[in-house]
Each structure stands twice: as structure tokens, then as C-alpha cells.
Amino acid sequence: MDISITEADIMENFEQHEEQKPIKKKGSVLKSLIGWIVYVALLVGLVVGTPKALSYILKSEYPMAAITSGSMWPTLKTGDMVFIQGIQSRNEFEVGDIVVYKNPQGFTIHRVEEKQENAVITKGDANNTLDTPVKYEDIIGKTVEFQGKPFKIPLLGNISIMLNK
Q1: Whole-structure pTM over 0.85, yes or no?
Q2: Across the 165 residues of the chain, what is the mean pLDDT of every consecutive 10-residue run?
Q3: So where are the chain's domains?
Q4: Quick one: three-class SS letters along the chain?
Q5: What fold, for 64-163?
């Protein structure tokens, strides 16, 4: 079997492949770069702007919280993200509401069991005992409700939990 390839055959094949290569234009690279800049700016705007907007809308310095324990199971599960409506007075929540309050370790999210003269008694739904009394001024808000249940985003709080470790 004798195969002969001439220089003309090689050149013809080379020219066919050259014609098939797309030519990148400077404008398309610039468009792509601008697209990425806009995308990153929007992403940063969402990450920074969403909590600020929620703080304004919910009138809370802490508009979102991640559930970090199983004390409110089955209502709230570890890793759920809840939204917190700020409160200014003791009349803005009732027995049965889920409130958020400050403590030396951070924040606790539990259900109101009893309102006393100077304090509130809370308890986690999965706990067997009541919490120590909480001063009214330590309560920063209550969970936002939708159709009578706490509005939550399952698993989204896990991001916050991982970042805080």
C-alpha cells in the first residue's frame, strides 16, 4: 500500500481548518468582562443589602437568626433560618409567641410560657423545664409568622452556623 501526500494536500487541509476557527472580537471580551462585573456587583449588593433592608423593614437590629440547637424541635429545626420582627414594648408579644432574647452566650429563641410583672418565662418546645426568667428589656424580637407558623427557610441557617465555627 503506497500513500503519497503532496505539499498541496497538506496546505489545502490546513486552509480548511483555518477557516473553521472562530475569530474572537475585542468587543465580545469586553462584553463578557462587563457582564462578570455586573454579576459580582449584584451578588455583593444582595449579600450586603438584604440584611440592611430586612433590618429596616422588620425594625430589628438582628433581622435573621439561625437555629443552632434542637430545643425548639419540631417547630424549628437545627439549620433553619428565621426572621425576627423587632419589638419595642411588652405588649407586642403574647404567651405562645416565639421570642428572641439576649443572654451571656448570645441569643435564645424560645416560646413564651408566661408573662410576669417584670419578666417573661420561656421554654424550648423540646425542653422539659422552663427557662430562667428573662427581663423584658432583654427581648429583642419575635419570629415573623406566616399563616400562624414561624416563617423559616430550612437549611439556610447552616451557612451561618458553619461560618461562625
Answers
A1: no
A2: 62 60 67 92 87 90 94 97 95 97 93 97 98 96 96 93 84
A3: 26-58, 64-163
A4: CCCCCCHHHHHHHHHHHHHHCCCCCHHHHHHHHHHHHHHHHHHHHHHHHHHHHHHHHHCCCCCEEECCCCCCCCCCCCCCEEEEEECCCHHHCCCCCEEEEEECCEEEEEEEEEECCCEEEEECCCCCCCCCCEEHHHEEEEECEECCEECEECCCHHHHHHHCC
A5: Umud Fragment, subunit A (2.10.109)
